Amino acid sequence: MPHITVEYPEGVVDDKSVDLVLQTMHQSIAASGLFKADQVKTRAYSFRHFTNAGGSDPYIHIQARIKSGRDADNKKQLSEVILAGLEPLTLPVAVATVEIIDMDRDSYGKHVPT
Q: Which SUPFAM superfamilies does this entry report, sorted A to Z (predicted)?
């Protein structure tokens, strides 16, 4: 936990930059102390068609899915950590947004093959 999903515009953000974003997200979250490094899972998906407030300025959207039960301050801190990690990167986007999503703790399942 958490599951970090980065959505970015196809053809605007290159593979090297996507890899850097994923590594940065992982390191920033682990360094924050909110989650252990071996708990952070990151992945990215590109999208082809989009608008941004009716225009064509590219953007990145990040979802952080975490088990329910964390308070609003923890969620806000996680959002700030993610955005702060992105700040030094020079990404060709107009805006980056973050959304913290609760996953129901009682129904969350996990299998680790042995």
A: Tautomerase/MIF
By the 8 A CB rule, do 3 and 41 touch?
A: yes
Does residue 110 fall inside a structural domain?
no
| Inter-residue contact 29 to 78 (CB < 8 Å) | yes
Q: Can you tell me the distance from the alpha carbon of 60 to that of 85, in angstroms, rounded to the nearest whole number? A: 13
Q: Cβ of 50: how many Cβ atoms within 10 Å?
A: 15
Is 113 inside a domain boundary? no
Which CATH number do you get for residue 85?
3.30.429.10
Query: pLDDT by residue (tens digit) across 30-39?
Result: 999 999 999 9
How many angstroms separate the CA atoms of 86 and 64, rounded?
14
Task: Report if residue 114 sits inside a domain.
Answer: no
Distinct helix (H) and strand (E) counts, the chain: 2, 4
